[in-house]
Amino acid sequence: MAENIYDEIEIEDMTYDATLEIYHYPCPCGDRFEIGLADLRDGEEIAVCPSCSLMIRVVFEVGDLPGEEEERLDGVGAGEGVEVAG
Questions:
Q1: What proportion of the chain, given as a percentage, has pLDDT over 70?
Q2: Which residues of 1-86 form beta strands (DSSP E)?
Q3: CA 83 – CA 81 distance, rounded (Å)
Q4: Please, what is the end-to-end C-alpha distance for the chain in angstroms?
Q5: With 70 as the cut, is the pLDDT of residue 14 above it?
Q6: Per-residue pLDDT at 3 exceeds 80
């Protein structure tokens, strides 16, 4: 698998699609490497191109991913609201 790693790319150099919650980056074949936000949060670091065998390693820190703090705050706020009302 390591022989198919095309490059290491900083997540800041990738494009984020908030609607689909995926990061993508151009592949030399003309398609694009893709990796889902959920996969990144689970510690996955390999983005694949669906049209060829190339892969890239995404360099990132889980704490810097979008929505991480918002989701935690929303979850805490909703939980506290239920406890106070209950």
A1: 74
A2: 5-10, 15-17, 22-26, 32-36, 46-48, 55-59
A3: 5
A4: 52
A5: yes
A6: no
For the domain that residue 51 is a member of, what is the CATH number? 3.10.660.10
- CA 61 – CA 44 distance, rounded (Å): 11
Q: Is 49 exposed, middle or buried (0-12, 13-18, 19+ CB in 10 A)?
A: buried
Sheet of 22-26: strand order equals 5-10, 55-59, 46-48, 32-36, 22-26, 15-17
Both tokens of 30, joined, read 């003309």
Instruction: Please tell me which residue, 76 or 48, carries the higher pLDDT value.
Output: 48
- Residue 79 pLDDT greater than 80, yes or no: no
Domain that holds residue 64: 2-85
Number of domains in the chain: 1
